[in-house]
Amino acid sequence: MLSDIEARGILSQTDASNINTSDHEGNILIPEGNIADPGGIIADPENIPTDSKRDTAVPDESNTTETESITVYIDTPFRRTIDWLSNHPTQPSQYFCPTEPVTMTSKHYLALLDWLVEDARHLLEKLDAFEQSYRESGLRYHNVPHAFRHGKTLNIGFIRLSPFLLHRLAVIFECNDRDHVNIFQDWVGLDTHAKAAIQKVNSAQDLTDVQELRAVQEEVKKEVLEAEMYTKQVGKIVRSLERMVDKVYASMPELEEVDLSNRYGFQGGIFRMWVATFPEVKRDLVTFDELAEDMVKNGVEDGTWWSEN
């Protein structure tokens, strides 16, 4: 065991003036500060080399230049979705209590009207699709020889078509005015109620009274429901016509060539009379002859005959 004199001799190599080396019982005491740094030499800021000190000086603001940022909002579907989600509550406590009735405000009713007007527009887009299917069936029908589709030919070995079926197709695809054909009342009904709903919503955009908005919302809802009923009926009619035309094609022994491009021909004239019943021709947006020639060359193309008119 080291004596008190030997211990003092060892510790004399350090700055003993800053260290309490032993207590009154002669026990060696650990110096204050870091063990690897007896006496706290490195801990003393004055003992740190100048080049290793951290530069804590505040930069001169006069030498700094700030670049002004400009935020540009680009309207994209993704951005609209993010904006829509950001308006929703972020915490469960922010939602309404399920047992308490929600107090409807003008914003709530305007939101409901926006949903209803989207439903009405979707129904008009369905009517466009039905119109296209109807025209495709009609174009196929007019490519069948006139004598055959009127049952004036005898086909041995093939099923004879019902005269009622042939008459029904003739009334629909050889008409000169849709107003005289019952099935198109459903077309008109769908179009009328859907556009009435859109018109009522547009007229209610400036309303702020909750009672008035509630009344408009009920009226628009009824219009949309009526349009949906007509949509189902039009869909059934179009699918039925497709099946009837398929039966005509299946019963034909041979598909004879029919020249629909000749506007002065017998079948070409009947075809143009049918094309003249289309909505865009009635609105004078295109002539029936131009539309007929385009259908003969390119078939039935996509269109927004009802949704954008």
TrEMBL record:
<feature type="region of interest" description="Disordered">
    <location>
        <begin position="16"/>
        <end position="68"/>
    </location>
</feature>
<protein>
    <submittedName>
        <fullName>Uncharacterized protein</fullName>
    </submittedName>
</protein>
